[in-house]
Amino acid sequence: MSKKVIYGVYDDDDVILQAVKDIRAKGIHVDEVYSPFPIHGLDHALGLKPSRLAIASFIYGCIGLSLGLLMMWYMMIQDWPQIIGGKPNFSLLQNLPAFVPIAFELTVFFAAHLMVITYLMRCKLYPGSSETSPDPRTTDDKFLMEIEAHGNEADLIALMKETGAQEIKEEQIA
Amino acid sequence: MHYESPIREPLILQDKTLHDITEDVARPIEGKANKYWWALFIAALLAFMWGAGCLAYTAGTGIGVWGLNKTVGWAWDITNFVWWVGIGHAGTLISAVLLLFRQKWRLSINRSAEAMTIFAVVQAGLFPIFHMGRPWLAYFVLPLPNNFGSLWVNFNSPLLWDVFAISTYLTVSLVFWYMGLIPDFAMIRDRAVKPMAKKIYTILSFGWSGKAKHWQRFEELSLVLAGLATPLVLSVHTIVSMDFATSIIPGWHTTIFPPYFVAGAIFSGFAMVQTLLLVMRKVVNMEAYITIKHIEYMNIVIMVTGSIVGVAYITELFIAWYSGVEFEQYAFLNRATGPYWWAYWSMMTCNVISPQFMWFKKLRTSIAFTFFISIVVNIGMWFERFVIIVTSLHRDYLPSSWTMFSPTFVDIGIFVGTIGFFFVLFLLYARTFPVIAQAELKTIVKSSGSQNKK
To answer: Which one of B78, B183, B247, B424 is CB 3.0 to 4.6 Å from B439, fit for a cystine?
Structure first.
């Protein structure tokens, strides 16, 4: 079964933001917006849920901190304790000041890298991906709205024109 | 909607539209290099090759080919290491700290400043690795069990902290930079006509399409990475300073080192950003984006951090006297009046006096003067590290071992080589990468573009 998709090309970020609000107010679902730069308030206007990347990053940071401390405890306290510079070698807690820098670095290392990997996976971004926007001008200066039609093409086109779209395109997607 | 006071000067000049920004950022990539680029590139490549030869000679013969002796065991190489790491700090400061403070002027310069960070940290990393003498055993610094049983690396040592700090810093800066580059590579990809360029930029852009959800995640990611990179950048030079501060060498054993080193790092890093960008804005025609206002803001940062460094120098002298420790007092007296007095006074002139000229608006908005001061500051900060390292070591507790350090041609060759390598990387970057974070810059066209300030 094929579906029909209507693309509206806009040339201003404020216009498309208002258009999204107006169209959604009419109860029509806007499937996607492609833009050359982040438009503030667009995620809210589209009804997107807030991103949870920051929470993920916090968890990754906690993992990094725990693994870092576990590693240093095992290597310096448990496996082969040595007296270095007269520092206590029998307890993690008492030797902790010397372990702060590396524990901190590993926290940042895990939080940053695992968050980036999560981001790339969630957005399905990877080297070799051939995905592009339906209109290459959306990385330059055009803004594209995508709405799936369910037999209401004429209404959608009229609505997009009314909200300031410069061009309208229809496409069949298999 | 973002509102900005009309009193603020525009950050983008010449009434640029969104499409103009695309064109201007893509032009250096799509066009051909001019003869100045080639001349600089060949000069940098020759310097790099000379340095690579000196490194090969060092690795093949041993670090006896350097000017080190048994009293001065750290000198030229560690000076260069600290100098390069310090230069790197400005990039992260611009992209992370200024992002947290919502400073829009960072958008024209953050990409190049971050590129500079990464290339500078690469140069820095070479020095400790080659100072090991057997660079092929560099993996010994990693916490791996070895052949002799599980004798681990020493987690109490600042030198090991440095390994973790520098590698975290390099990799986190790299991904921070690359995540910002993805949308810009996508822009280049969508314009590319030549099949080879299209293919390369398709791979580099990871299939970016600019969906609303992706932008939402992109902004969240940038903010959190900035939040992580800010304490990271402060920790890196803090830990570098601890390589010295945790020892008991007079002149090194001071608690002021961490903040003093961080301020010095930002100071030297901004000077290097100025040096590079003043040339780049001209060569790739970015004068509309990297304006006098940007240069002035950076000069103010140089002035403030330079003054912090000056206060730190004077505090050091005061504390040396106030501590009542004879060895400490002698170390500082020897710096200022001993055989290396010229290095100390070069440092003082370049780092304490020269940034004070930036109090004058006429001087800090002059391109020629800014360029001159940026070079002076780079030289001064190199001398700072030389003074701290060599003058503290060359007269130790035992007067019979007092000696002088003089670099050999290999020492100098490696340093020149890293400058060459740095410029090779930066010049290649300027021709193949979008040198301005154009996607993010486009967000401020309406608020800070000159057409909206009329």
So the answer is: B183
